[in-house]
Design a protein that fits this description.
184 residues, Nucleoside Triphosphate Pyrophosphohydrolase, 2 domains, four-stranded mixed β-sheet, three-stranded antiparallel β-sheet, globular, GDP-mannose pyrophosphatase, NUDIX_hydrolase_dom
Length: 184
């Protein structure tokens, strides 16, 4: 059906092999038969947790992100380790970053946040039945947690204080779920 849009890989090479990210450069054939190159980031995938407390507030994080040199408001999230089940990754990341565990987990959706230059995907999970515990931050990881209402988070999207795409999408999902417009 979409054959007139498909690009076909001819060959390629790994041009950067870093600790976390890799960069691939492929020669491809365009739908019209012309050849060109595509460069993109290879990413193992990540999880995003939408942690909803019993009182209806949401557990959030504030973390400095070096590439943009500022503190961002985000949902707990993290990279999926090699051969790790995404749900296991979500449970691990929630506990490591916030100290919380959850008794109820629901898969929400998969998003692709940088389709023009990366194969990264993020699996979103709703976590409920939260129980507080001790943070287990990775070495060199610094963040703080706080709680906010969904309405406060929506206001943050509106006023531009929340700009992280995974967080914006997660907030919209929570709002739709709360209103009963969308079901899991």
């Amino acid at each position: 059906m979409d054959k007139h849009l498909v690009e076909t890989r001819i060959d390629g090479e790994l041009v950067y092999d870093g600790h976390f990210l890799k960069i691939q450069r492929d020669t491809i054939e365009l739908p019209d038969g012309q050849h060109t190159r595509r460069e993109y980031v290879l990413h193992p995938g990540a999880v995003v947790i939408l942690p909803l407390l019993d009182d209806g507030t949401v557990l959030m994080e504030r973390q400095f992100r070096y590439p943009l040199h500022q503190v961002f408001i985000e949902f707990p999230a993290g990279k999926i380790d090699h051969n790790e089940d995404p749900l296991a990754s979500a449970k691990r990341e929630l506990e490591e970053e916030t100290g919380y565990t959850a008794s109820e987990w629901q898969y929400v959706t998969r998003i692709h946040n940088a389709i023009a230059y990366s194969d990264e995907h993020l699996d979103l999970y709703l976590a409920r039945g939260l129980k507080a515990g001790q943070q287990k931050l990775d070495e060199g990881e610094f963040l703080e947690t706080y709680t906010a209402t969904i309405d406060e988070l929506l206001q943050g999207v509106r006023d531009g204080s929340i700009t992280d795409v995974k967080t914006v999408i997660g907030i919209f999902w929570l709002d739709k779920l709360r209103a009963g417009d969308w079901k899991l």
